[in-house]
């Protein structure tokens, strides 16, 4: 009988899609044959996972987080906090080992970024009492920039990329194939592409927000965005909606999820507030709408969309997004931004069209094409949704978990 391994799964964050990824990692590691010590800020929300797997496979523990920086107000990272995160992870793993009677063979950081930023020195990463570790390094696109110049070198130091070379780090996962070779070069160890999974739960078409969007749309085609952040091109889509109304387009724009005011400058916040004081009649935007939980609610709302908007501002974020996985699951064409991995993916799988960053006029043209089911040349789009989804499915994640176990425990 093969030896049963135990993974300590750690995530200090619990916003956005963190819960979706965390649940998926639990399922994938257990399906790969490993027990899981799962540590996160809200283990009480994972009771269904414990019911599904049983305490012979899963142990849940609460991971405290130091919170925001006192040195850098409004930031979640500084040298003191990063060091404390490592220490809290080590202490909580040890406590969970005592409670469960299991010994963690390795640690997987589901959001490694929180353990890198402003890392004071490499020795901090050796505090896991000899446990090897791996992690999903998500926001790594700065590594694709040329490494010349003092500013770039300082940026990399502050982002803590040197920690990737720690002896106890055995391998890394990324979700951006374009950044993978750069991370591998910096880390000097194996880096593997992780599928950018999504919650595959069947959407509920009767959730209140989905009903509201359909009622307000009154048969008009719906262009939707989830998560109202500057980096997601939220401001661009607001301008697109107003211009579409001026041009008499029979479209409706659904702005859903949290409105992240803190991502906007003072001038941008003023502009948005003035916009909402006299909004066009072709939008739904509830600034107090709140977070859209993934699963049947998110998928039920997204199913009202005829076009997904994911034209991120590359100047703020140019990595992978599981919006494309969601779009493939629901078979919805998507508008993305030129110049990064999302453009390459929609071109390869013909799942949408790419526009220049923050180009409202080109976005209008792209939406018109996608609603007609054609590309820029007027040819049928013929999207390969099934092929894309297969690369980012739960089954692929289980394969990745098996390889991770093998690489993390290699002698």
Strand arrangement within the widest β-sheet reads: 3-2-1-4-5-6-7
Derived from helix and strand composition plus strand pairing, the structural class reads alpha/beta
User: Outline, from the CA principal axes?
Assistant: globular
What is the N-to-C order of secondary-structure elements (H for helix, E for strand)?
A: EHEHEHEEHEHEHEHEHEHEHEHEHHH
Percentage of β-strand residues: 15-25%
Could you characterize the architecture of this molecule?
With 411 residues, the chain is an alpha/beta fold. Helices cover 38% and strands 16% of the residues. The protein contains 14 helices and 13 strands. It has a 7-stranded parallel sheet with strand order 3-2-1-4-5-6-7, sandwiched between helices. A 6-stranded parallel sheet has the order 10-9-8-11-12-13, with helices on both faces. The chain starts with 5 loop residues before the first strand and ends with a helix.
Q: Quick gist of this model?
A:
This protein has 411 residues and is α/β, with parallel strands linked by helices. It contains 14 helices and 13 strands.
């Amino acid at each position: 009988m093969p030896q049963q391994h135990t993974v300590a799964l750690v995530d200090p964050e619990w916003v956005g899609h963190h819960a979706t990824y965390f649940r998926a990692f639990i399922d994938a590691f257990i399906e790969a044959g490993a027990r899981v010590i799962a540590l996160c800020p809200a283990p009480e929300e994972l009771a269904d996972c414990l019911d599904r797997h049983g305490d012979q496979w899963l142990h849940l523990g609460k991971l405290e987080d130091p919170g925001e920086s006192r040195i850098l107000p409004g930031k979640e990272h500084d040298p003191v906090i990063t060091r404390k995160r490592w220490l809290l992870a080590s202490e909580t793993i040890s406590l969970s080992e005592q409670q469960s009677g299991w010994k963690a063979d390795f640690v997987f950081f589901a959001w490694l970024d929180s353990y890198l930023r402003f890392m004071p020195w490499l020795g901090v990463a050796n505090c896991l009492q000899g446990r090897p570790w791996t992690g999903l390094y998500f926001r790594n696109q700065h590594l694709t920039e040329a490494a010349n110049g003092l500013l770039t070198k300082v940026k990399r130091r502050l982002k803590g990329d040197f920690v990737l070379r720690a002896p106890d780090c055995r391998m890394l996962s990324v979700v951006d194939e374009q950044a993978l070779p750069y991370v591998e070069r910096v880390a000097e160890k194996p880096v593997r592409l992780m599928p950018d999974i999504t919650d595959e739960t069947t959407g509920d078409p009767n959730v209140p927000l989905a009903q509201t969007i359909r009622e307000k749309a009154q048969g008009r085609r719906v262009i939707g965005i989830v998560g109202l952040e500057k980096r997601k091109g939220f401001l661009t889509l607001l301008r697109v909606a107003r211009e579409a109304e001026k041009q008499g387009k029979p479209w409706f724009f659904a702005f859903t999820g949290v409105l992240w005011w803190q991502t906007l400058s003072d001038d941008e916040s003023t502009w948005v507030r003035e916009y909402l004081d006299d909004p066009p009649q072709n939008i739904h935007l509830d600034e107090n709408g709140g977070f859209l939980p993934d699963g049947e609610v998110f998928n039920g709302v997204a199913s009202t969309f005829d076009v997904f908007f994911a034209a991120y501002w590359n100047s703020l974020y140019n990595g992978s997004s599981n919006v494309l996985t969601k779009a493939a699951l629901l078979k919805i064409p998507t508008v993305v931004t030129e110049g990064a991995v999302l453009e390459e993916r929609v071109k390869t799988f013909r799942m949408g069209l790419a526009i220049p960053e923050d180009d409202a006029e080109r976005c209008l043209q792209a939406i018109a094409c996608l609603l007609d089911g054609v590309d820029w040349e007027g040819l049928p789009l013929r999207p390969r949704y099934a092929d894309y989804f297969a690369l980012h499915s739960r089954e692929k994640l289980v394969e990745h978990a098996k390889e991770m176990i093998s690489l993390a425990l290699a002698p």
